[in-house]
Amino acid sequence: MTFHLVHLGCKVNAAEMETLSRDLLRCGWAAGPLEGADVAVVNTCTVTQRADSKSLYAIRRTAARAKRVFVTGCFSELEREAALSIPGVAAIIPQSEKANAAALIRASFGAVEKVHDYPGDEALHEPSPHPWDREATEGSSHARVILKIQDGCNAFCAYCRIPHARGLPKSVPSRDLLSRVRELSGSGVTECVLTGINLGLWRENGSGLEDLLGWILEASGPMYIRLSSLEPRSFEKSVSRHFDHPRLVPHLHFPLQGGSDSLLARMNRRYTTAAYRDFLAAMRERKPDLSVSTDVIVGFPGETEAEFEESLAFYAACGFSKVHVFPFSPRPKTAAQAMPGRLDAKLLTARGDRLKAAAARWEEAYLRSTVGQVQRFVLETEPIGGFAEGTTDRYLKGRIPVASAGGLKRGDSAWVRVPAEGDLFEPVTKGA
pTM here? Predict the structure, then answer.
């Protein structure tokens, strides 16, 4: 039996598909191309209208090429009938059954095995007994492994319907996470990325992310640890004490969404620009060269010219390495959908273009500030023509000449110097 997996959206979706892949491989199935696959699974996203469209396209394309198609993820959780209406879709795997996806798929072919129960929303902040992300190491490239530590969210930001799709916060038990971290480190994995819908909501018996991060750094041996993203409203300054740890990767995605206090209030973000600035300062006090990227929304309902200009000024002052710009997208089941003052398409496009142009300038300024720095580079591809592609610890993309780096292979890491131009990094001896 062959399978092919497709995922859209966030790192959590990627981690879930990695888990499903490992489970099916352990059952003797083989990964293969989409065309003619016995089973294909599409893990969907619903964060924006564009994500919905991409999810529908991916389902249609997959259903036209594979023999049996299963759909899961946030879009299919909220738009079940739309997903099921596509010819070739065999079934929807609910979010609550993702941990058992391999068993459910195999059962559809007559395989008999135990399908575990899964906690519902009543398990708020309670450790889940189920291995959502059993990150097996067999066949790993040893480059970068994504480890899900948490799922669900109770923030209900005015523009977001993910809490409706994912449910309330649930935490993976620390004993499972630490066991997995030791396994990955022992197998030679270079970097482990901790991910979740809202990492700051990880809880266990009174302990939070600060405690978990300390335990993981202690248990991870030589392996580097990266935080995929932290939400400001769940960020605790005490977490910043870990940012000077030599194996905590000096890059963080810290979504802001709005640069005006009135905008943030309407978005139900529940923090102010002053608080966000304080959070950044706490992290950079520990790690002055910390690279911080962010997400921002342009054209939120009622956004005035003054709010837009105030936001531009605040974004510029934050010193972001990258700003991801998202035009406001009305979503069903959200408070923002019914808010007055929605911008017309022409004005929304104009403001979006201005913000994207400014973001490109900020990114260029950040890149110039890194020229000559020595950063750790992880090879993410096998060498082709003497060069391998990868990413530095501060999330700069580029290539290195493999021969001068000691004949490295995919998954290895090397110290490199950031070039003044282009994407070809120079391998150096650490400390040079």
Answer: 0.86
